Amino acid sequence: MKKWNILGLMVLGMLLLSACGEKKYAALPINEEVDICVICNMQVKDDAFATQLTTKDGKNYKFDDIGCMNKWKEQNGSEEIGMDYVRDYNDKEWIEFSKASYVYDESLRTPMAYGMISFKDAGSAEAFVKEQGLGTVLTAGELASHEWTQNQNMMNMDMMNDEEHKDGEMSDDMESKDADKGMDMTQNSSDK
Predict the structure, then answer these.
(1) pTM of the predicted model, to two decimals?
(2) Domain ranges of the chain
(3) For site-directed labelling of 117, which of 77, 103, 106, 192 has its Cα 20 to 30 A away?
(4) For the chain, what is the HEC assignment?
């Protein structure tokens, strides 16, 4: 009879432990070849701006900018989020969103021009602000009342730079072809 009591207590103990166990959510690695931001459809780079969240049912969503993750939360609510992560600006280490410190300044260049970067602690965020001479340090709680707007001038400049870059590549290609032609003409005339 004692064996059954001990066995019963052990089984009951294991059931209690498993029922009380909190579900763990881990940050997933970024795969630049396939990871696309679910809000803006841009490639998610394996950099300091990448963020992600996992819902309680296990779906993982990745974002190229913390502003995009905030937009997802506004559209879908945060009650179904199991865990959300941001990256430390200095070493790209994943940090739980609620434990990170943030720096905002509209002039900070981020992928979607939201001007928000994250740090693993307030000291690192304050050091960044002091070093750069700009920005405001915020907590995760303060982000709930933050006005999430994109710096439209920066977005327009990025679009213009992309166009100039494309035009520049074409011009460079044409210049090098012209230079090659000129070199061929010089070689031909010296051969005569």
Answers:
(1) 0.72
(2) 23-150
(3) 77
(4) CHHHHHHHHHHHHHHHHHHHCCCCCCCCCCCCCCCECCCCCCECCCCCCCEEEEECCCCEEEECCHHHHHHHHHHHCCCCEEEEEEECCCCCCEEEHHHCEEEECCCCCCCCCCCEEEECCHHHHHHHHHHHCCCEEEEHHHHCCCCCCCCHHHHHHHHHHHHHHHHHHHHHHHHHHHHHHHHHHHHHHHHC
